[in-house]
């Protein structure tokens, strides 16, 4: 029992990062990928997981190497404007994810309980704001909440995999990169945007510092980071495989959450719809607070108000991220545009603002003067640079796609 408690005590920053990333967008993107393309987009998920693991490990090492916070270091070394722009970038990405979280909780709660779709974002955002205002030790409480919710989701989807099984041949074939076709570009971008979150990886440094880990305990920080991302990757892969086995080729409209929920009907019968929607709602709410705290803390630190997660400035900007994300979601839902497709577009659009954090994280952790023996090795730098190229490529492609959709809508 003592050993188990010790393991659980060591789990923290990596698990919070996994819980933030494993939001409704990740569940819907993985489900849609499996339902519409079978195993074909499994390679994109594997790539996203590898990039997230590498960059989260960078964030962990950076947190252990620095005595000041990352944005404090940037401000002292390169000037406050760079720190402020980086903080703003993180805040915008967090706000974009909040919009997706609100759409996700609306779709899930609406399917479970009903009611006006705009009601649920208001309810859960209000609850999250109350949590941020009242909670005294946000980080400690966050760890416990994330542990429970991630465990529940993992159990539900792994149980479904035992029922559906999987094809080793198609699994191996899915790991071979393939060109995107039609709607696959949006789904692939959403998978990358919801799984490889450069902002969450950058924020890993803050979580590691909150945990009190230093150069002497860097090994523990790295193992924790890889463990959290391994959990994230396992859940996303299980969801994709389950959807591929149960929904691919069925001809059903998988843009509807009810159709996506049918992947659990085999093992749970009519209860599959309830469990899927409950898991989607839990994933949405589990990333509500942690995601907002990422944006809030980065914004506060970028502007020079300090980096403490529990500070008034961080809480204030976190509340702002929650409020803005909720306001946009309520507006979209009020005019009837809320769906799993709008959720995917919102989550994939965060790729446009995220590269700055990825660039800075790669450059900082490659500096020998800053990192010493903790700097990136050749493999990490190579994979990190390749990851940046992929992000820029998909960001540009997605940006053009969104412009075309907007022009079609206007004209």
Describe the structure.
The protein is mainly α and 411 residues long. The chain has one domain (2-66, 150-287, 324-410). 79% of the residues lie in helices and 0% in strands. It has helices at residues 2-10, 13-21, 24-37, 42-65, 70-78, 80-112, 119-134, 138-164, 168-174, 184-195, 198-211, 218-246, 257-261, 265-268, 271-302, 312-334, 340-349, 355-365, 368-371, 378-410. Helix 2 (13-21) packs across helix 8 (138-164). The longest helix has 33 residues, at 80-112. The protein starts with a helix and ends with a helix.
Outline the secondary-structure elements.
Blueprint: H1 2-10, H2 13-21, H3 24-37, H4 42-65, H5 70-78, H6 80-112, H7 119-134, H8 138-164, H9 168-174, H10 184-195, H11 198-211, H12 218-246, H13 257-261, H14 265-268, H15 271-302, H16 312-334, H17 340-349, H18 355-365, H19 368-371, H20 378-410
Form type = globular
Q: Regarding quaternary structure, how should these chains be classified?
A: single chain
Terminal Cα separation, in Å?
65 Å
| Overall mean confidence score, pLDDT | 79
């Amino acid at each position: 029992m003592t050993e188990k408690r010790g393991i659980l005590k060591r789990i923290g920053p990596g698990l919070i990062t996994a819980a933030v990333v494993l939001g409704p967008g990740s569940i819907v993107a993985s489900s849609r990928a499996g339902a519409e393309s079978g195993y074909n987009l499994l390679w994109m998920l594997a790539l996203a997981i590898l990039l997230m693991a590498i960059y989260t490990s960078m964030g962990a090492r950076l947190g252990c190497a620095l005595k000041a916070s990352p944005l404090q270091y940037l401000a002292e070394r390169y000037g406050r404007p760079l720190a402020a722009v980086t903080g703003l970038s993180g805040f915008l990405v967090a706000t974009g994810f909040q919009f997706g979280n609100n759409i996700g909780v609306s779709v899930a709660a609406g399917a479970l309980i009903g009611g006006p779709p705009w009601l649920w974002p208001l309810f859960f955002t209000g609850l999250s704001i109350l949590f941020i205002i009242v909670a005294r030790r946000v980080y400690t409480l966050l760890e416990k909440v994330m542990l429970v919710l991630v465990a529940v989701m993992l159990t539900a989807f792994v149980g479904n995999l035992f029922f559906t099984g999987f094809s080793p041949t198609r699994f191996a074939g899915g790991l071979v990169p393939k060109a995107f076709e039609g709607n696959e570009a949006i789904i692939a971008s959403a998978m990358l945007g919801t799984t490889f979150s450069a902002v969450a990886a950058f924020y890993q440094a803050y979580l590691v510092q909150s945990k009190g880990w230093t150069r002497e305990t860097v090994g523990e920080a790295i193992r924790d980071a890889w463990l959290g991302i391994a959990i994230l990757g396992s859940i996303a892969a299980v969801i994709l495989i389950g959807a591929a086995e149960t929904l691919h080729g069925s001809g059903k409209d998988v843009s509807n959450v009810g159709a996506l929920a049918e992947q659990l009907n085999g093992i749970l019968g009519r209860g599959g719809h309830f469990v899927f929607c409950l898991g989607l709602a839990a994933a949405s709410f589990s990333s509500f607070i942690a995601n907002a705290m990422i944006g809030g803390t980065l914004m506060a630190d970028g502007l020079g108000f300090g980096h403490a997660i529990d500070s008034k400035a961080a809480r204030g900007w976190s509340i702002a991220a929650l409020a803005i994300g909720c306001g946009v979601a309520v507006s979209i839902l009020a005019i009837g545009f809320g769906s799993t497709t709008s959720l995917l577009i919102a989550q994939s659009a965060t790729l446009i603002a995220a590269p700055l954090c990825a660039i800075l994280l790669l450059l900082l952790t490659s500096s020998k003067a800053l990192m010493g023996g903790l700097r990136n090795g050749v493999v990490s730098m190579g994979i990190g640079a390749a990851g940046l190229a992929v992000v820029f490529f998909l960001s540009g492609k997605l940006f053009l796609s969104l412009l075309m959709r907007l022009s079609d809508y206007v004209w």
